[in-house]
Design brief:
This protein has 299 residues and is α/β, with parallel strands linked by helices. The chain has helices at residues 77-86, 112-122, 124-139, 148-169, 189-212, 228-234, 238-254, 261-276, 278-289, and strands at residues 27-30, 33-38, 41-46, 55-59, 66-69, 73-75, 89-93, 100-102. The strands form two sheets. It has a four-stranded mixed sheet, with helices on both faces. The chain has a four-stranded mixed sheet with strand order 4-3-2-6. Mean pLDDT is 84; it is low at 1-23.
């Protein structure tokens, strides 16, 4: 049975077999195999896939914060019991984290992020300061404005211009952002691709928010939605990641490289999320937003 940090070499998060629970990403991606418990440890019997050779692997769950089960995986009830006992999260995801299907509330033994999140959201001044910080990351500078509606207006103008610029870069004809929730397939190809790309990036943000134990409904820019904070996080990557992902797929579709736009966006997203280590980057951003430094001692 294979053991140790070489288990998923090159994948997101798991860099070593012994990482303090409070300061690691510890994301372990598994696909095409069965996860079970044997002799008190996790066992993954894998078929050969793009990211893992076929084999029988021991999972060092003590050094894992979150196990992400991709396509073709199954687990036993004992896995849920063992992970719940040791505070290891389990989530069912699409390939590369482009979908988030479920993340059971097994999880972290600390509440640092959740408490910091709630405290900032409950205080109107700190809530606005946090929103301004999010906008500063998007713009690359701190804006002097302190009215949230003004900030939203400035951001809206920036995004509108970004759509045009990125579309031009990929040679895509752009007629504006249009989306009918009642009939999403009625949109033109660029808007369809943007819908798919946005959904995939939001799924990555869902995973990051769940991994750190933040509070999805308590958004600082977005409001009302049950995943408002997830949208706050995913929007940090709209210009640099979501738009190029969508328009690049449209270009490939127009050039005859693919005959299925959604599949092309999904394929590109899965590859890009791995290359960019998107979920760990989001985790770090969330901790930075709430000034949570958990690089200290062992859990």
């Amino acid at each position: 049975m294979n053991v140790g940090p070489g288990l998923m070499h090159g994948r997101l998060g798991l860099a070593a077999s012994r990482i303090p629970h409070t300061d690691r990403h510890g994301l372990l991606w598994l696909e095409y195999g069965k996860l079970s418990v044997e002799d008190g440890t996790l066992r993954f019997v894998a078929a050969k896939s793009e990211t893992l050779d076929a084999g029988d692997y021991a999972i060092p769950y003590q050094a894992v914060s979150m196990i992400l089960l991709g396509p073709g995986t199954s687990i036993t009830q004992d896995v849920l019991r063992l992970c719940a006992r040791h505070g290891t999260l389990i989530a069912a995801v699409g390939e590369g984290g482009v979908k988030s299907y479920t993340a059971p509330p097994l999880g972290q033994g600390r509440s640092d992020v959740a408490r910091a999140h709630a405290e900032r959201w409950a205080d109107p001044k700190r809530r606005l300061d946090t929103a301004r910080r999010l906008y500063a990351w998007r713009f690359g500078r701190v804006l002097p404005h302190r009215d949230i509606e003004t900030l939203r207006g400035i951001e809206g103008a920036r995004i509108k211009e970004s759509y045009k610029l990125v579309a031009q870069r990929f040679g895509i004809e752009w007629h504006g952002r249009r989306y009918d929730r009642q009939n999403p397939t009625a949109a033109d190809l660029p808007n369809q691709a943007l819908n798919h790309a946005a959904t995939f990036v939001e799924a990555a943000a869902d995973l990051a928010v769940a991994a750190v134990g933040a509070l999805p409904p308590l958004g600082f820019i977005h409001e009302d939605s049950s995943n408002a904070f997830t949208l706050d996080v995913s929007d940090l990557y709209r210009v640099d990641l979501t738009l190029p992902l969508a328009f690049g797929a449209v270009r490939a579709f127009g050039d005859g490289e693919t005959d299925n736009l959604e599949r092309e966006v999904r394929r590109r997203a899965a590859k890009l999320f791995r290359q960019e280590k998107l979920v760990p980057r989001m985790i770090d951003r969330i901790k930075e937003l709430f000034d949570v430094d958990d690089r200290g001692g062992d859990a």
